[in-house]
Amino acid sequence: MSEIFKKFFPFLIIALFSSLITTGLLIGFVPDAFNKTSENGKSSGLNQLQKTNYIQEIVGPDSIIKARNKVAPSVVYIDTVSVVSYRPSIPFGFRDFLPPGFFEEQQQERRGQGSGFIIRPDGYILTNEHVVRGAQKLEVTLFNSKKFTGKIVGTDSYTDLAVIKIEANNLPAVEFGDSDNLTPGQWVVAIGNPFGLHDTVTAGIISALGRSLEDPNQQGNLIQTDAAINPGNSGGPLVDLSGNVIGINEAILKNAQGLGFAIPSNLAKKVADELIKKGKIERPATPWLGVALSDISPQIANYYGLSNTEGAIVQVFKGSPAAKAGLRDGDIIKEINKKKITKSSDVVNLVKEAKVGQRLNILVYRDGKMEVFDIKLEARPQELEETQQRRRSILPFED
Q1: Is residue 130 annotated as part of the catalytic site, yes or no?
Q2: CATH: 2.30.30.140, 2.30.42.10, 2.70.20.10, 2.60.420.10. Which one for 287-382?
Q3: I need a surface site. Which of 74, 116, 169, 373 has the fewest CB within 10 A?
Q4: Does domain 179-282 have CATH number 2.40.10.10?
Q5: Per residue, what are the HEC states of the chain?
Q6: pLDDT in tens, 117-154
Q7: Active-site annotation holds for 234
Q8: Is the pTM of this model over 0.85?
C-alpha cells in the first residue's frame, strides 16, 4: 500500500492544488449583487436559495399584482351610443336613371367602448376625447359593476383628452405619478377594457419617450410602451409598479406589434384641471395663410423653367387671406419677409412664428416673373382648427 501511495501521491497533490485554484477563480467571478455585506463590512456568500430571495426582494414578485390592486378600483368602462346620419348610395346599375339624393337620409346607432379612470372622489373621470366624440349617451360601469349615466364636462381634441362626470361620491380616485421622471426600460402596467373584456391587465416596459406620430423624426410628448394595448383600452391608465398613473393609453400602430402610445400624466392632469374649471382649453388663435403647399421636384422646376427647386407651390383656399390678397393656384412662394423659401416646411414655420393680424411680404414667382403680395394673416377658422387638432390626436383606436 505504501508503494502505491508513494506512486500516486504527486498526482493527489496536483489535483488538490488545481481544485483550490478553481475554487478561488469561481469565488472571484461571483457577481457583487450576490454577495451581501455584513455589519462588520465583510462579504458573506449566498447560497442559491438566498440568491433567489435577494432577486425577488429587489424586483418584487408581486409588484404587478400590487399595482393592479391599487389602481383597478378606479378604472371605469365606458359604453357610448351615437347617432349618425347617412344616405344610401344609388346602386351602380341605376345611377343613370335615379338622381343624386333619391334615397332619403337615414339614421343609424353606433356603439363604442372605451376606458377611463376616476380622478376625483366626486365623480370626475378622465378618458380620451375620441372615446366620447359624438356620443349622445354615455354609460359608465364602475369596478364594482355599478352603472351610471355619464355627462361630458369638456373635451380637447388637440390632446385627445376628455373629462366626464357621474353623480356619485366617495369614489376611489387614482394617484398620479410624475411622467417627467420616467426612464426607458421601466416596467409599466396597462389596465382597461379591450374588446369589452373588463379589468384586463397587461404589463410591459416603457420603450421610448418623447414620441410623435405626426412625424417620427420630430420630438413629441407621447410615451411608447410594449404593454399589450387593444381597442377598448383607450382612456385607460398606464401605471408604474407603485400603482401611480403615469400615462393615459391612447393609440396603437396598425399592423405592428408592441407599439402602443400613451399621453403623459403631467400633461393629462393639467388639461383635466382646466376642463373641469372652464369646460374647454383656451389657446391662442392659430395664424392662417390659407394655402396648401408642395415642394418643387426637378420635373416641376423644369416645367416652370426654374434654375433650381427652391420655393413652395401653393394651392389657395377660397376666402383665405392668400386668396383675398390675390394669390392663385400654382404660384410659387420664393421669399417671406425677405427670408428665402427652399421648401414648403419653411413657409409653415414662418407662419407659425407669426401672429394673427401680422402682415407678411411674400415674393411669388408667376408666369415667368416675380410679384410681391402683402398678406394679413387671419385666425384659422374653427372647423379647420378642429380638423387639424383631430389629426394631431394621432391614430385613435377603432372603438
Answers
A1: yes
A2: 2.30.42.10
A3: 169
A4: yes
A5: CHHHHHHHHHHHHHHHHHHHHHHHHHHHCCCHHHEEECCCCCEEECCHHHHHHHHHHHHCCCHHHHHHHHHHHHEEEEEEEEEEEECCCCCHHHCCCCCCCCCCCEEEEEEEEEEEEEEECCCEEEECHHHHCCCCEEEEECCCCCEEECEEEEEECCCCEEEEECCCCCCCCCCECCHHHCCCCCEEEEEECHHHCCCEEEEEEEEEEEECCCCCCCCCCEEEECCCCCCCCCCCEEECCCCCEEEEEEEECCCCCCCEEEEEHHHHHHHHHHHHHHCCCCCCCCEECCEEEEECCHHHHHHHCCCCCCCEEEEECCCCHHHHHCCCCCCEEEEECCEECCCHHHHHHHHHHCCCCCEEEEEEEECCEEEEEEEECEECCHHHHHHHHHHHCCCECCC
A6: 999 999 999 999 999 988 889 999 999 999 999 999 99
A7: yes
A8: no
